Q: What sequence folds into this?
C-alpha cells in the first residue's frame, strides 16, 4: 500500500494507473506464493506433461524430445542464412556422443565419436559391443579393427571372412575386375 500511496501522493494522472499497479502487484504475489506449472497441449501435435519431456505427435514422450510421425521424413533442420550449418551432438568430457539407428525400438547400428580411442568415428553393430568400421583423425580406415595402422586396414579372426573380394558383373570388358596398385610416378599394375 505504501507504493500506491506514493503514486497517489505524486498526483498520478488517473485512477486506472493505480488499479493497473494493484492488479500487477496482486498477480506477482499470486505467482510468488504458488508453484507455477506450464502445460500446453494441442491434441497430439505438441505435448508437455511437466516431466521434463516434450512430445510432438505423442501424448506420452519418453525422451527430452520425442517425435512420432507416420510420414517418411520426421524432422528437418534448415538454416536460412548463407553460412554453414549443422546439428551438434555434445557429451561430457570422456564420454561418447552417439547416434543410434533403430527399427521398431530395436537398435541396429550406432555411430559414435569414440573419445577413449583417439576421438575416432566408428560404426558399431546392434549390441554396441563391437566396432565394425573405424575412421581415425589422421584419415586411416579400419574394417574389423579399431586401430587402423594404415590408410586402409582390414582385419578378421574368422577364416571365412579373410581377404578382399573384387566382383564384377556384366558382359565383355565390363566383366573384368581389376585391382590396381599405383606408385608415385610409374603406375605399375598388378
A:
Amino acid at each position: 500500500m505504501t507504493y500506491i500511496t506514493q503514486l497517489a501522493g505524486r498526483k498520478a494522472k488517473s485512477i486506472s494507473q493505480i488499479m493497473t499497479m494493484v492488479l500487477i502487484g496482486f498477480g506477482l504475489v499470486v505467482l510468488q506464493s504458488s508453484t507455477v506449472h506450464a502445460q500446453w497441449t494441442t491434441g497430439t501435435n505438441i505435448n508437455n506433461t511437466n516431466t521434463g519431456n516434450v512430445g510432438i505427435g505423442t501424448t506420452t514422450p519418453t525422451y527430452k524430445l520425442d517425435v512420432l510421425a507416420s510420414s517418411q521424413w520426421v524432422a528437418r533442420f534448415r538454416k536460412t542464412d548463407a553460412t554453414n550449418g549443422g546439428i551438434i551432438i555434445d557429451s561430457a568430457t570422456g564420454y561418447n556422443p552417439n547416434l543410434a539407428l533403430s527399427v521398431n525400438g530395436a537398435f541396429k547400428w550406432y555411430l559414435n565419436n569414440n573419445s577413449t580411442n583417439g576421438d575416432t568415428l566408428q560404426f558399431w553393430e546392434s549390441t554396441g559391443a563391437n566396432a565394425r568400421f573405424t575412421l581415425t583423425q589422421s584419415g586411416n580406415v579400419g574394417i574389423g579393427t579399431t586401430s587402423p595402422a594404415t590408410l586402409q586396414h582390414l582385419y578378421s579372426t574368422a577364416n571365412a571372412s579373410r581377404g578382399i573380394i573384387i566382383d564384377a558383373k556384366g558382359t565383355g570388358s565390363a566383366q573384368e575386375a581389376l585391382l590396381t596398385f599405383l606408385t608415385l610416378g610409374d603406375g605399375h599394375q598388378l
Summary: The first strand starts at residue 46 and ends at 48. The helical segments are 2-9, 15-33. DSSP finds two helices and nine strands in the chain.
